[in-house]
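Q: I'm writing up a methods section and want to include an example of the input and output format. Could you take the sequence below and give the corresponding predicted structure tokens, formatted cleanly so I can copy it straight into the document?
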Amino acid sequence: MQEQYRTVAREGVHETEINRSRFICALAPAASEQEAQDFVARVRGEHPTATHNCFAYVIGADAAVQRASDDGEPGGTAGAPMLQMLLRRETRYVAAVVTRYYGGVKLGAGGLIRAYGGVVGEALDALGTVTRQRFRIATVTVDHQRAGKLENDLRATGRAVRDVRYAEAVTIEVGLPGADVDAFRAWLADATAGTARLELGGEAYGAA
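A: Here is the clean output for your methods example:
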């Protein structure tokens, strides 16, 4: 698995005009291929009179799923350069739709490639990207007496507290970089005088 990946920080839209044609790039994070397809369908629904609604998306930290569509533009001049821009910028779990309203001036194949790829790059710059880091999920169970101080200590040492649940005991879910597990185990024993229980779960991605 990838140690980290980048994705778009938020959903948003960036527009540019090239030779009287409007190019509107809508970008969104997408956790699955279904989410990406739903986003594409939604944007197409918002622009039913557009000349083209071309799309590209990359799903998976390792970019396992890659799809693109020219939506009627000459083959390879829209979806492919959009996809290449997403990959070149190392973004994952992201969907892009570029809506074009034709302005009467033909751009030629090279012009289209530059326009479609370029507006995706501009949209990524405008919306920003975030890095997601691979974590091991660790669940710490501790008594109520020590829970408040432990939670504060975890946050103070920069560890990612994902969830805190209060029941008979308190469980605190923490995201740990894989290399930090042994050191964390020792730190936890020291911080709680050996009273806390640590269970290691699966892996997930979270904010770096």
